[in-house]
Amino acid sequence: MSNTILKKSAVALALTLAFSGYAAAEAHIAVVNQDSSEAVESGNNMYIEQGGFLNWAYADQYGEGNDTFLLQLDSLQEAYAYVTGDFNLVEGEQYGFWNTLDSDIQGDENVLSSFQEGDYNVAEVFLTGNANTAIVEQSGSANTAGIDLAGDYNSASIAQSGDLNWANFQIEGSDNYFEANQSGSSNEAGYFTATGNMNTFIADQEGDGNVGGVVGANGDMNEVYVQQFGSANIFIAQSLSGNENFVDVYQDGSSNEFLIQPIQGDVNEIVVNQEGNTNVVEAATGMIGNYNTVDADQNGDNNYAVFATEGDDHIIEMDQRGDNNIAVAESYGSFNDIYISSRGDENFNGVALIGSGNEADSRQIGDVNTAEIVIVGDDNDLYSRQHGDSNTLLAYSYDAGTTSGNELQSTQTGDINLIDTIIGGSDNVIAFAQEGNSNVIAGDEGSFIVGGNGGNVDIQQIGNNNVVTGGQLSDSNTMSVYQQGDYNVATVVQY
Q: Which UniProt keywords apply (predicted)?
């Protein structure tokens, strides 16, 4: 029993009675204590119904097979039920504007159901044991519902309708199922410090300024499903660890955010879909481990997405449709795959590969787009495709002279396109293709420096006013330049 709540209730009732001229006849207080510690075949049964204004019910049950029913009608009600034993069922139903339900159950196979309708509702449920079920439904504004589950085979469901609602789960155990449905604005739903396997969390939020997420979860084969409809909503996943976990987030609206910091483990999968403008996917330290998968999709303008993985055998897929979008994917490790696709104008694709045996594919359809590819490591395959006008490709490697065995293929279709590249190392293969007018492949202090041994460069241009300069350093290099069109200039420098 919470002494703080009891004191608050006593003070509230005293003040209300003092300043109410008619409430003396309707000031209800019910306190029941039951103990069935003796040898009995069935337990205790309790039924409390209070109608009126100033209701307060407190119930204590010990023993086997206990049933508690609390029904308090309108106005200032507070109900507490503390049950210790087996086969307990507690149901509380309150109508009014200031409802509070605080329940503490310890034992096995407990079921608690609470329905509150009105304003300023607070429901806190604590369950410890096995095969527990807790359901809380609140309708109104400024509602708070919290469920704390410890044990196995637990199920918790929270449904809130109104504004400024808060729902949370704190779980320890296995095979748990949690669900929160919220309608309104500035709602929050999530589960925290969860420990266990095969947990499922489902949250549906409709409105603006909602927050949903998972913080401090540890376990395997957990599933998180969050849907947010509205604007300025946020999903947060922080300090998650385990294997074979699945996170699926859908956000429909503007100025929504998807934040991860980070997820650690192997064979984890993240799927995020954002519909609208000015949305953000922020996962600069997204996933740490091996065999993880990321699928990010944004549809709208002025969106931003960055995702980084650390480990081997990852797959990152990012797709953007709209204008003025930014997509950045970073991979630290070996045998990782990155696929970035953007359709629209003035978009930016960024790829960073730090490791060996990685593959990156960047595709852009539209005008005034920029693709930047950075590699540090050996035996990486890079592909860049740009279709449109005034597009730019920047491809280079750090630690020039130590990056070897990489392959870069670039294709540009359109007018006034630019390729600027610096690749250092040995046994690299580079192929460029441009089709259109006023295309440029830079070089001679304007990048396009390919260094290393046994390198191969193939440049093709079809169009007018094209310029190829260049420079290839070191030994046994082969360069082939093909130009078709008017006013083309080719300068090839090999040392």
A: Signal
Helices and strands in the chain: count of H runs, count of E runs: 1, 43
Question: Are the C-beta atoms of 90 and 105 separated by less than 8 Å?
Answer: yes
CA distance 351 to 421: 14
Distance CA 247, CA 242 (A): 12
- In angstroms, rounded to a whole number, what is the distance separating the alpha carbons of residues 307 and 29? 57
- Cα distances (angstroms) measured from residue 285 to each of 51, 224, 238, 309: 55, 19, 10, 7
CA atoms of 454 and 404, how far apart (whole Å): 10
The more confidently predicted of residues 258 and 8 is 258
User: Cα 254 to chain center, whole Å?
Assistant: 16
Condensed to tens digits (0 to 9), the pLDDT of residues 456-489 reads 666 666 666 666 666 555 555 555 555 555 554 4
pLDDT tens string 116-131: 998 899 999 998 988 8
DSSP labels for 38-98?
SS-SS--EEEEEE-SSEEEEEEEEEEES-EEEEEE-SSEEEEEEEEEEES-EEEEEEEESE
Q: Where do the H-state alpha helices sit in 80-162? A: none
CA 150 to chain centre: 25
Is residue 186 pLDDT above 60, yes or no? Answer: yes
d(CA 330, CA 308): 4
Q: Is the pLDDT of residue 23 over 50?
A: no
Outline where DSSP puts E strands in 88-241.
89-96, 98-108, 111-118, 122-128, 133-139, 144-150, 155-161, 166-172, 177-183, 188-195, 200-206, 211-215, 223-229, 234-241
Task: Report which of 305, 337, 338, 306 is spatially closest to residue 321, judged by C-alpha positions.
Answer: 305
Q: Which residue from 321, 230, 305, 231 is spatially nearest to 270, judged by alpha carbons?
A: 305
Please give the pLDDT value at position 394: 81
Compute the 3-state secondary structure of the chain and give helix, strand, coil in percent, each to the nearest 5. Answer: 5, 60, 35
Structure tokens at 396: 């280079």
Task: Show the tokens assigned to 398.
Answer: 């750090």
> Which residue type sits at 219?
G
Each residue of 321-376: pLDDT tens digit? 999 999 999 999 999 999 999 999 999 999 999 999 999 999 999 999 899 988 88
CA-wise closest residue to 227 among 248, 204, 257:
204
* The CA-based dihedral angle spanning residues 420, 421, 422, 426, taken in that order and rounded to the nearest 10 degrees: -160
Residue 410, Cβ neighbours under 10 Å: how many? 24
Which amino acid is present at 470?
A: G
**Residue 480 β-bridge partners:** 458
Span 256-288, pLDDT tens digits: 999 998 899 999 999 999 999 999 999 988 899
